Amino acid sequence: MLSSSSDESLLNIRDLKICYQQGEFLIEALNGINLKVRKGSVTAVIGESGSGKTTLAHAILRILPSNAKIVGGNILFKGQDLFKLSEREMEKIRGREISMIFQEPVSHLNPVMTVREHLIETLNLLKGLDKDRAVKEALELLKVLKIPDPEKVMNYYPHQLSGGMAQRILIALSIAAKPSLLIADEPTSALDPTIQAQILRLLRDLNRNLGISILLITHDLSVVSAIADYIYVMYAGKICEHGIFSAILTKPRHPYTQILLASTLGVGKRVGSESLKVFEKASSELFNSLTGCKFYPRCPYAKEICKKEEPPPKSIEESSVYCFLY
Predict the structure, then answer these.
(1) Contact call for residues 16 and 72 (beta carbons, < 8 A)
(2) How do strand 68-77 and strand 42-46 relate by DSSP bridges?
(3) For the segment 130-144, what is each residue's pLDDT rounded down to a tens digit?
(4) Which is it for the CA torsion 5, 16, 104, 145, positive or negative?
(5) Stated pTM of the model
(6) Which end of the chain is less packed: N or C, by CB atoms within 10 Å?
(7) Which residues contact 227 (CB under 8 A, 6 or more apart)?
(8) Fold of 9-235
(9) How many Å apart are CA 155 and CA 115, to the nearest integer?
């Protein structure tokens, strides 16, 4: 595990604000996100669906949809502001320096191409390898990912792969150029628990053995508990708590984090059945119309000030929390 004192940042996101244009309206997706990924770490971003996690990942790679508007902030990668790069310069970073594992792996594989063809094409594009050299390196990649009988698997088409195997092939494609940063967006969401555990061990091995830093995006705290060094908890486009994993797991302070832990891991501060009912209700509030803390309509501890003002960060031990309780 990385020490919290390490401040050598590979990725540094500062005050990032992104909105989506929907007709005449701007829908806030991210509002003032500050986040760091330290070299050699596994950093997790956790939150419900719709909290802005995938928007954050797409912003890093600059693959946002056309209706997205970057309102403010910047993203520094190795000290370089990604928003100031040309598209040609970004093309040299995507896949080579920063790579991404997407959700639903089979849908990101070409159904008429074999695993061999996928890997050869990727290695040729990213590293300029000829066919013979690409085949040799492809086999090495499959061995690193502990794929049994790699020579046979090389001839498979996507429909012949299990969910876990397809995810391993997608990981192979993602690390082909040995990127510095791997973004994993819900990498185990469609897999059964046994395969989930295998994929998570694999990601941790890539982090430890190859030195690849990982930004893990998930709604599932049990996934985070397996490999994360540092955690950011996101709610309605904002960070509500962050800290080293052990601090968040043993002493969650934000009510949202407490409920996440109590409902998924059965640990942390218990907030009572009524609070869990509040949490489980569909979030139909238009967060853009809310002032103050975005969580107050669902918070069991909401105060009058929560409706009027956004809570400032409070550093406590090895974590920071945005909450008026502290």
Answers:
(1) yes
(2) unpaired
(3) 999 999 999 999 999
(4) negative
(5) 0.89
(6) N
(7) 42, 200, 203, 204, 207, 214, 216
(8) Rossmann fold (3.40.50)
(9) 6
